[in-house]
Amino acid sequence: MIGYVTLGTNDFPRAVGFYDSLFGSLGIKRFMEEENYFVAWAAAPDQPSVAVSVPFNKEAASVGNGTMVALVMDSPEKVDALYNKAMELGATDEGQPGFRPTDATSGFYAGYFRDLDGNKLNAFCIVEG
C-alpha cells in the first residue's frame, strides 16, 4: 500500500548519516538521491522506501504531531536490534521494544524512537501465538 515516506530535515548530512547507519544495519542501501536535497533507502526499487529531504519550500522542517513511520521486521529480535541501533546512533526513546498491550505474549511487538530531527518511527512485527 505505501510507496514511500519522506521525512524533513534541517541538517541533511546528519540525517543521511543516521539513516545510512540505521538502514545499513538491515542491509538496506540508498536507491535514489539528489545531492544536498534528497536520499531514499529501500530493500529493492520496487519496495516501499523511506527518504529524508530538505523541504522543497526551503522553510524549516518540522515534526508532524501524530505522524509516525512504521518499519516492518520479521522477528522481535530484529525489532530489538533496530531499536538498539537507533539508540546507539543518538535517537530518543519513545517506547522500548515489547508487546502492545504490555501484558500480551503474542500479537503486536514494537519499539518506538525519534530520529535526530524528532521524526517518530517504530520497528514492529506480528508474533503468532
UniProtKB/TrEMBL annotation:
Residues 1-126 form the VOC domain. Keywords: Dioxygenase, Lyase, Oxidoreductase. PROSITE patterns: VOC. It comes from the Bacteria. GO terms for molecular function: dioxygenase activity; lyase activity. It holds the Pfam family Glyoxalase. This is Catechol 2,3-dioxygenase-like lactoylglutathione lyase family enzyme. The lineage of its organism: Bacteria, Pseudomonadati, Pseudomonadota, Gammaproteobacteria, Arenicellales.
